[in-house]
């Protein structure tokens, strides 16, 4: 037998899936000479054998064809009977996972070869050679082959490459076998409640399968009752983890099977190489064992297992016979526990009972279960002597079950307590000499059957049905089966006849139909041996009541006539109302239109009146069609009286419709009519007092659809041009051969064309067009032209066929529509400078459809804000619909203008849109300045210096002819000329200043410029600037004379104009408290050996002991010399502060004073870093700052090694830190961070971080490495900002680079482009000429921006400016009401209020209210969770700041917010969806950012003030919503936003109880555990308003502690407080808590 055939008998379990290319093995390669690079040593590495045939030259080490390296193994067969194998024996660990991989190719394509002749193969090196894994070689290109296998019980394997009985060539190279990890299992928990809800998460992680390119299915398998989701998972293609959820309803222990889906190959001779797929079990390191705990039940029985013989709770009685020893607590024979109850009889006349009484609820369901057995088999006994039963206290039996089995048998009884409140559980043995046992009894309350009806009204036509579902889980759980059925009347059809419940089947579905109309209550019955009477009626909570509706009126198209072709003499009543001709009615077999007969009425006399009548049930207000064929013996077309007719009348005899019979040929006649309020009509064929003959045949009476009218549009304008197209469709008229005229009628001013249209002869539709010149609602009349016959002849008249929907239109005025018309201004902000600053306000009038309206007289008026001048007073709109006005103001403030359109002499239309213009003060202090042109000023008492006051407005234009007064502080130090002056055409006023007397030391002061206000009695402007005059001797002095912010340890620094000399033993410094101050005195005489005296050039530095805080000191230095001799003593004063200021890196113009400068580019690769500090740092013994931490990080986040930071030094004279960085990488961004250093007061420095870019070569692309703007606390660029751009290389300066900033799809913003000073040409700055627009997107482009080699920069930058916010208010300790003014997106000025109780927020917190971003409006509209709700534009973000940090979290006490709204004057508010909402329905909602949904907060509406207020516990985005519909139910819409709840988590940590009320009500919300015990009362009679959904937010915690995991019940009670509406109700539901 060949090796292949021997392998056939072995069960093959493999994982054979292709790996992604390039996977690297995780462990050591166990192959020797894996790439065939060394000579093959068959005793050490590769064994080269032939197991069939003989071709000695088959094996070749090929140096020409190889995958990598210099060689590969080639196997070549010339014959087809050769079997060549190259293999290695490899020692492995049992039950371990391995990965075999290698590269192979063949000289021909073997993919379709069923024999799979070439393979990589692994077998267990034992007798029988069980296969562990293989993979075929099929490609003519080098192919990576990989598979994972488990060694199972092998300790040594054979890994081989072979070619079997095929004349072909294969190559093998780069072979590898390595140990890998197998699957790992993670289990959330092993103990699970068997309730079908509790679950455990099981995670399977198998990285090796995840790395495979082809997918492998895996699954977990348990018992039938175990629920495992999903059914299976696909691993592979990067997916290495699978997660399953396990739950069950069956208690007990279970071990899951872990299975994978793979292919195997069968090797029998008849089916060689067939691939088969199967599920197999990969070995695991640990079993998947779980235990499902039974759901705890409340057993109402005491001592249910008979374990307590003393306090037994059971009454032992004998009602006949006498055997005192019959009751035994048996310790030998029991089902579980230590004992059971045994009842044993020696005699046949003994009747023994064990009884226990139990209190129960009336009309409730219970389950009695227990385990019983008998000493003999009683299954064939017709009178079972032993029973387990439930009795009433009066002796009646509720249910029973016989004890028949000689083995332990579980008995279950489901019963209803009926009217009983106490029952007796009985185990009995009746007059039989034998023994019975019972154990583990249980009596529990349970739910009864639940009935669900599909509908309660069913048509009594035998076809319409109602589905009725009975659900009885307790019967379904029983092992024994119970039959159930529904019973109705004899005419009721119920299918199936019965259902069997039990053995897991708990639901029965029945279908009910009937042909008998009327109300019926079905009987629900069960048949079970638990009830001795057979079929019984389990009590239901509600009756099964149905109403079978009479099936009159018919379906569309059904002929409602009986015997319509007169084929027999039934169904028609043949009457004569005058005359007497009994033979007039003939069922004519000769003259018939169709069929065998017709009805002939034959008059011989002229006074006979004959009628054939049939009554028919119809539906009221419904359309019907009567058709038939008729002929006359004479031509009656000219007869004015129409003696022969088809006729339809009511049972009272009133005519509904008719048609005459006039032709001598068979003629089809049709009548379309409406039944009106009639439920029965009569169909009549008659001949009236004429001696002629008439025939009738093939009548049909059917229900049809009526006319349908469609309006092209329901609104049109009263201009006589705008038209609505109106379509009338009446298919039944179109099918008639007779023609019928129809028309539409409106008012006198309404023009409807054409006047009428003819339907019939296949014309079933009509199209009308209506225009009008009169406004108002129009109800059109639909009329048809029909004949009416009377004794005087036939009269034609217009009548109104009833319509299902009355066609109603609205004719609109052509005047301007207040909602669609536009009001806009060319400026939203302008200085209040009168005619110099005009604003153009434009009004465009439009109709409600958006079309422009010209010739409308428009006026503007001030709605609120400062007084303004508007010109002209009124203006008509031009042909483009625009009217333009000029508005100027001399007063600052926010102006709101409203536009009015004249409608008539006495009325005007006020447009909804308004124009909002902020008139600012003319002088803009941010743009204006007070400056000194001179680089330095000397306090010599003689030299005068220029002072310039430059005034500009907010548009950077000069403010001219404005009076400026100049003063100085202290005034005695300086002289100013002149005292005041006016600004010139450049906005400048020029003054001179000098010191009043010479001073050896610097003189400091403050210059104040007071500018006249914009208006009379207005507020003056003030500009303030500090100034320093250098002394005649001392140019710089620290601490400064008069300074009050001096640190006690700070060194003295004196800079001199000329070099000075210290005199040893003579030069002295004395610092002593100023007169009247108490402090320490420091006095020291200079000596060259004192290290705290240092003279460097013209700078003298003296370090001293600490001075006391909050003390004024006088410092005196004497005996200094210069080239002119000894200098006069230098004396000055200063005050030492309490040092609470941390040291920091100094700043220049807002930037850190460091080198390299922030965002400097082209920095060398070995830069020296210099950092200037605001004060002295504390140094260690080596002169290094104590605790200083320096970190340098590159753009990849890698921190530089410490040895690359060298030469660290600190200069006490300049407070400058320096160090050197080495071996940096070119064109790389580095960030330097400094922290932890302390000053002399041991205060820790403020951390500082800045970045720079190293040098980039000419070949490197010009890059933007960073851009900056001035941002608000939300990170949004302010409307007043500059833009700075930092590049990685120096820029060329010619031609001048230009930055262009444009509104997206708008105009370019004015501004200038300059280089950033300290960066040379490595950075650009764009300075805007004025403020930007709020909440507006801008795009930045670059022109002529290029590096020195001319390489242009062509990228773009986009940003969106800040949203408009209110002014900020600071919270005080006492709290209070804070009002905020904010212009919203609609141009309305909103007054928003926040009321804070004391302590709700920390004192000093800043509050602000902001608009939302326009771009987020769609997001907010999409978060409306209820389709009945409409969102208003009133959406605002409420924010609290502490410093620049935005505060989050709950307040210490609830805060009240008030949000305004705007109505239309009739109590209606317009929503964003254009729906008008009643203002009383408005509520405040908060935006749930995590779930992207609005959540109800509630609120009360003040309809007089037009505000909505509510208490909130946190700030968020708040918005107003309302609804046009009022809840129909008192309490509805109860729902939870999150369920189950995971307390404390970020995603599921909170839920909102949502509910709607029809009336204002007190609401109570209670949480119960699964046993009905109260856990928490969340709301206790809190009043909530009617209308939109309300909500209560809960975090799943009670008294700060989260609830334990489980199922909880919530119940929400509501009691109306509306005096006019007394109502109450409650809704209950379940809530899950998980951890």
Explained architecture:
It is a single chain. With 1635 residues, the protein is mainly beta. It contains 5 helices and 130 strands. The strands form 31 sheets. Strands 108, 111, 112, 113, 117, 118 and 121 form a 7-stranded antiparallel β-sheet that branches. Strands 12, 14, 16, 18, 19 and 20 form a 6-stranded mixed β-sheet that branches. A hairpin with a 6-residue loop joins strand 6 and strand 7. The radius of gyration is 51 Å and the shape is extended. The two termini are 63 Å apart. The N terminus is likely disordered.
Radius of gyration: 51 Å
- Helices, by number, come to 5
Number of strands: 130
Report strand %. Answer: over 45%
Distance between the termini: 63 Å
Uncertain stretches: 1-26, 265-275, 789-793
Give a topology summary.
Blueprint lengths: L2 H5 L39 E6 L6 E4 L9 E5 L6 E9 L5 E10 L11 E7 L6 E6 L6 E8 L5 E9 L4 E12 L3 E4 L3 E3 L6 E6 L1 H4 L5 E6 L4 E4 L3 E3 L5 E8 L3 E15 L7 E7 L7 E6 L21 E6 L6 E4 L9 E5 L6 E9 L5 E10 L11 E7 L4 E6 L6 E8 L5 E9 L4 E12 L3 E4 L3 E3 L6 E6 L1 H5 L4 E6 L4 E4 L3 E3 L5 E8 L3 E10 L7 E2 L7 E6 L23 E6 L6 E4 L9 E5 L6 E9 L5 E10 L11 E7 L4 E6 L6 E8 L5 E9 L4 E12 L3 E4 L3 E3 L6 E6 L1 H5 L4 E6 L4 E4 L3 E3 L5 E8 L3 E4 L1 E10 L2 E7 L8 E5 L9 E4 L3 E3 L7 E6 L12 E8 L3 E4 L2 E3 L5 E8 L3 E10 L5 E13 L8 E3 L13 E6 L12 E7 L4 E4 L2 E3 L5 E8 ...
Parallel strand pairs: 12-20, 32-40, 52-61, 63-70, 80-90, 94-100
Antiparallel strand pairs: 1-4, 2-3, 3-10, 4-9, 5-8, 5-10, 6-7, 6-9, 11-13, 13-17, 14-16, 14-18, 15-17, 18-19, 18-20, 21-24, 22-23, 23-30, 24-29, 25-28, 25-30, 26-27, 26-29, 31-33, 33-37, 34-36, 34-38, 35-37, 38-39, 38-40, 41-44, 42-43, 43-50, 44-49, 45-48, 45-50, 46-47, 46-49, 51-53, 53-57, ...
